Amino acid sequence: MPVDWLGYVYAATVAAGGIMGYAKAGSVPSLGAGLAFGALLGYGAHLNSQDPPRPLLQLGTSLFLAGMMGARWNRSGKLMPAGFVCVLSVAALVRNLVTYNRYLPLPTGTKGA
After folding, report:
1. Taken in order 5, 20, 89, 58, is the CA torsion positive or negative?
2. 64 and 93 in contact (C-beta within 8 Å)?
3. Cα(58)–Cα(44) distance, integer angstroms
4. Transmembrane region positions (predicted)?
5. Fewer CB within 10 Å, N- or C-terminus of the chain?
């Protein structure tokens, strides 16, 4: 499996956004969240680069970020930074679902239990 460069770029973008939030507004929560989510996404990109890829961490983190930042975008109406991260997260979510569809575990029901 090739290296998940787009996943690493996504992770770096989220982490850089947290750093910029701290630099511009002195927001420690922005710094902490940006670095934490960036680290999770970076590790998710590492897992996607393995053979076979394991996309669940990156999928879950992208889904959470899309929901959280989408709600912030809806409240504030500002494209930056919430709308940008929301759109980027949805794009990463769709890309991961399409690219790694065959590697996602399927839920199985138990019969007769």
Report:
1. positive
2. no
3. 5
4. 6-23, 30-49, 79-98
5. C
Please measure the distance between the N-terminal and C-terminal CA atoms of the chain and give it in whole angstroms: 39
3-state secondary structure of 66: helix
Q: Which residues contact 91 (CB under 8 A, 6 or more apart)?
A: none
Distance set, CA 81 to CA 2, 76, 109 (Å): 30, 10, 41
Tell me, yes or no, if the pTM score tops 0.85: yes
The whole-angstrom separation of Cα 89 and Cα 48 is: 16
Residues 6+ apart with CB under 8 A from 3: 49
